[in-house]
Backbone:
């Protein structure tokens, strides 16, 4: 079997791919081919990487034949299809494995589209828990990484609909959120027990085209976050906010608008209290949460325009990622 890997100056990622690909495909890899640019052959100190990279291959696949080709970045859209065409003369489609973990998004998109149109079905990328990035792959537990088999695109029309960039962006973003919120002690039992699963499931629902379920799942996360957020803000205000904590999604948005967001937007940079200064990046959180609530209600109660479902799901996915990242960055949840 042939393993094709885009070059990467990060040898840790190369190591992970070599190890896991070899194991995942029953140690049948006999050839490894790197698609390089000048940037992938040198480390940050401008020291050459090819010998070290080859040593990694030899460590895990001792008898592998190692080859590479060097290209200008601007030529890859022409050269990658040529490379695959040449390799298909030597290997059947089912004996070619394409790694989409390495290389930047530009290279990955070209390789993904080209491999799909060449009817190569063994496409994959590897995600390793950010806290375990420095570990060698053989020392990782099964919970520390995931091997994602990517479905090949069927035609040119679907490439415009469903790109690898989109897949990797949302997968990476969701896994980063899972990592960021993993050690938070929420009051909500749902957030403590289901947040990680719900985030991952919403992304899976998006790519399986279950758009209403994706929106509904994200709305459930944001509802619990919204209600919990009011209590945290009230505690940080240290008596400045007299309103009682709300118990429903609708009331939590009203509470945020009247007791935190509108007062903060009105004051802007004028004489902000300490908690207002700390949480200033959240001054529009009521609008974001209310938009997600509206779309969640539409998805739950029907009346959806099917032609808009994908765009709506993508909007809510982006808004939820933005909201959760903003909350994490302000330190409101610790």
Residues:
């Amino acid at each position: 079997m042939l393993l094709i890997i885009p070059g990467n100056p990060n040898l840790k990622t190369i190591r992970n791919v070599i190890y896991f690909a070899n194991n995942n495909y029953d140690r049948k890899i006999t050839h490894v081919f790197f698609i390089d640019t000048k940037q992938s052959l040198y480390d940050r100190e401008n020291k050459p990487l090819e010998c070290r990279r080859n040593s990694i291959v030899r460590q895990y696949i001792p008898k592998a034949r190692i080859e590479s080709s060097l290209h200008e970045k601007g030529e890859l859209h022409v050269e990658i299809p040529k490379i695959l065409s040449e390799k298909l003369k030597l290997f059947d489609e089912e004996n070619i494995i394409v790694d989409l973990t390495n290389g930047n998004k530009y290279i990955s998109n070209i390789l993904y589209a080209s491999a799909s149109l060449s009817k190569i079905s063994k496409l994959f990328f590897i995600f390793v828990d950010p806290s375990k990035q420095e570990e060698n792959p053989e020392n990782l537990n099964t919970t520390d990484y995931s091997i994602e088999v990517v479905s090949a695109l069927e035609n040119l029309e679907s490439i415009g609909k469903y790109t690898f960039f989109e897949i990797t962006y949302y997968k990476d973003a969701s896994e980063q959120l899972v990592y960021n919120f993993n050690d938070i002690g929420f009051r909500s039992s749902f957030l403590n027990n289901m947040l990680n699963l719900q985030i991952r499931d919403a992304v899976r629902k998006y790519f399986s085209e279950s758009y209403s379920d994706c929106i509904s799942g994200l709305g459930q996360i944001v509802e619990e976050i919204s209600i919990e957020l009011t209590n945290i803000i009230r505690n940080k205000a240290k008596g400045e906010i007299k309103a009682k904590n709300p118990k429903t999604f609708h009331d939590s948005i009203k509470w945020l608008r009247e007791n935190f967001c509108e007062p903060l937007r009105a004051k802007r940079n004028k004489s902000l209290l300490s908690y207002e200064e700390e949480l200033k990046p959240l001054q529009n959180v009521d609008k974001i949460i209310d938009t997600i609530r509206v779309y969640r209600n539409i998805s739950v109660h029907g009346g959806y325009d099917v032609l808009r479902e994908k765009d709506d799901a993508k909007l809510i996915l982006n808004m939820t990622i933005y909201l959760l990242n903003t909350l994490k960055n302000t330190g409101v949840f610790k």
User: Anything to note?
Assistant: The chain has two domains: 2-162, 185-330. Residues 155-160 have pLDDT under 50 and may be disordered. The longest helix spans residues 211-237. The radius of gyration is 24 Å.
